[in-house]
């Protein structure tokens, strides 16, 4: 049992704005004061300190074959030693951290949950083995559906019952959490040397289009009642002028205006927010995207904010990665994953004097500032935009125009004419930034007990050495950055794992997965699945992950 005394609590979900109060923890949950015996509690004096829920990173690439291939491609990453073996495991990595380092670095920042954003179902066992190796945080993974032959077949036949059955079966078999869609139809086209350019291009070999793939998967997701909406990586990523495709994709959610909840999450939008006809005249489409998102009640986005320095582009969008490889001349790895998806990996570094990189940096901030705080979550699309360890930098930038002005003086002047960042006076409040990094991503994922400090919530808590009642976050941005970089306490499931910015205990979080098999007739699609396994390199009986193989599974059943 814990008694956190006199903390200054910010909890957007429960509309608590910097109120001095006590919190009580028992059996890994936040409980009412009457449920504990104070004399038996471990007491933490949080006087004059900020108390918030543990951070939730809803979109990162933390496990699976992509990040392992990236580590192999970049041996220089492994020369950076973060922690020498002792009480805690050895950890290395500059941006592409080893599995223990991922958990440790999240915990030191006060983050307690992170989701792997793209899991090929056939690679699920590998992904879960890595997730199990990451300590300190709760986890989950999103299986990819946007280029799977079986998905195309169900849509081509206009058979929603089959599609729902396939989605439910695949999520159960992969112990995944929801529906991820990457460049729908484009990765399949890449396997024939092409891509799709519009939402109405036909996918080679199938009578389906990206528009149909997105809308049919949204409908299947809604009829199954999955906790998370469809998680969309739009077509034409990384292409000047792509903001128009992004807006068109977002507006597909208008067809579900009768839904009682959010139906679409569009991810790392910075990479899909470019105006112009080429990189010579590229500009920002962030303001136009923000207008559309702000006008809709059933769509959310995340930023995909680039960080200057080293990064590694890795995504299921194989054609984009090849284009990036040709554009910058860097190393490149390509993956063709059975009949399910593909991927690519390219090392990259973001340079402040490079006009394109400066443009990307500015567009990410524009999105974070212009989109309503109830609709945009903070991410870097780790490691595509850079390390998650620089979330504090992004948080401080969103809160301080003065800090942005200082950083703008260091970047290529092209951003002055190509974006509207210099004219944006918005300064997000501490309350808004806590919402964007805690309660909002938890809400988007459908994790009811995450991201807040109400009774019954998971006791995932971060305490920072900052008094929000005495701090002007817009002027004291250096203090804000330092504070969010290193938590005074991180508490995971009621256990103190970080104190004074240092690790004190290693714990293992849960791996969340969703079981929606009771909402679909799985047998409706089994003949098709058996047929398609004639083209797989594994047998159907060896496909997937059993719950007993996961270290600490947390099953969410949809009924």
The gist of it:
By secondary structure, the protein is an alpha/beta fold. 31% of the residues lie in helices and 22% in strands. The chain contains 17 helices and 26 strands.
Describe the structure.
The protein is α/β, with parallel strands linked by helices. The protein has 17 helices and 26 strands. The protein is globular and about 65 Å long. The model has no long low-confidence stretch (mean pLDDT 97).
Give the percentage of residues in beta strands.
15-25%
In the CATH hierarchy, what is the class of the largest domain? Answer: Alpha Beta
Query: Structural class, judged by helices and strands?
Result: alpha/beta
List unreliable stretches of 5+ residues: none
Which overall shape is indicated by the principal axes computed on the Cα atoms? globular
Nearest-integer average pLDDT:
97
């Amino acid at each position: 049992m814990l008694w956190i005394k006199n903390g200054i609590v910010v909890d957007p979900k429960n509309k608590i704005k910097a109120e001095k109060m006590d919190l009580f923890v028992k059996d890994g949950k936040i409980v009412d004061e009457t449920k504990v015996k104070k004399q038996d509690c471990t007491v933490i004096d949080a006087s004059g300190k900020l108390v918030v829920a543990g951070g939730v990173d809803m979109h990162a690439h933390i496990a699976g074959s992509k990040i392992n291939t990236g580590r192999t491609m970049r041996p220089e990453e492994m020369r950076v030693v973060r922690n020498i073996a002792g009480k805690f495991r050895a950890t290395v990595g500059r941006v592409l951290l080893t599995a223990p380092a991922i958990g440790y670095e999240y915990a030191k920042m006060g983050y307690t949950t992170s989701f792997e954003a793209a899991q090929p179902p056939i690679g699920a066992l590998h992904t879960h083995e890595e997730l199990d190796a990451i300590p300190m945080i709760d986890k989950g993974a999103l299986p990819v559906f946007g280029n799977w032959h079986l998905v195309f077949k169900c849509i081509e036949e206009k058979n929603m019952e089959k599609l729902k059955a396939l989605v439910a079966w695949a999520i159960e078999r992969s112990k995944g959490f929801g529906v991820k869609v990457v460049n729908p139809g484009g990765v399949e086209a890449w396997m024939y040397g092409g891509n799709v350019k519009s939402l109405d291009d036909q996918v080679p070999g199938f009578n389906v289009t990206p528009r149909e793939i997105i809308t049919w998967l949204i409908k299947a997701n809604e009829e199954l009642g999955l906790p998370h909406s469809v998680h969309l990586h739009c077509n034409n990523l990384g292409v000047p002028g792509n903001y128009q495709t992004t807006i068109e994709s977002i507006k597909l959610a208008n067809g579900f205006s009768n839904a009682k909840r959010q139906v679409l999450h569009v991810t790392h939008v910075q990479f899909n927010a470019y105006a112009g006809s080429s990189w010579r005249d590229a500009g920002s489409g962030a303001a136009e995207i923000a207008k559309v998102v702000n006008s809709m009640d059933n769509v959310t986005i995340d930023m995909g904010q680039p960080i200057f320095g080293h990064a590694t582009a890795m995504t299921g969008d194989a054609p984009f990665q090849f284009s990036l490889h040709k554009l910058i001349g860097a190393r490149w790895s390509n993956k063709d994953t059975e009949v399910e998806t593909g991927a690519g990996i390219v090392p990259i570094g973001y340079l402040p004097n490079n006009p394109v990189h400066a443009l990307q940096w500015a567009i990410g901030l524009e999105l974070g500032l212009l989109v309503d705080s109830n609709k945009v979550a903070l991410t870097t699309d780790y490691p595509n935009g850079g390390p998650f360890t620089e979330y504090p930098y992004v948080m401080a930038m969103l809160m301080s125009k003065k800090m942005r002005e200082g950083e703008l003086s260091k970047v290529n002047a092209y951003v002055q004419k190509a974006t509207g960042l210099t004219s944006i006076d918005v300064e997000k409040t501490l309350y808004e930034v806590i919402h964007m990094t805690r309660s909002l991503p938890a809400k988007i994922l459908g994790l009811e007990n995450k991201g807040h400090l109400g009774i019954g919530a998971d006791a995932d808590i971060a305490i920072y050495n900052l008094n929000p009642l005495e701090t002007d976050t817009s002027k004291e941005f250096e203090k804000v950055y330092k504070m969010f970089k290193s938590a005074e306490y991180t508490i995971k499931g009621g256990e103190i794992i970080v104190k004074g910015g240092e690790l004190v205990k290693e714990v293992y979080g849960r791996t969340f997965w969703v079981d929606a098999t009771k909402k679909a007739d799985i047998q409706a699609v089994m003949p098709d699945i058996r047929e398609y396994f004639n083209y797989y390199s594994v047998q159907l009986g060896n496909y997937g992950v059993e719950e007993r193989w996961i270290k600490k599974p947390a099953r969410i059943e949809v009924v």
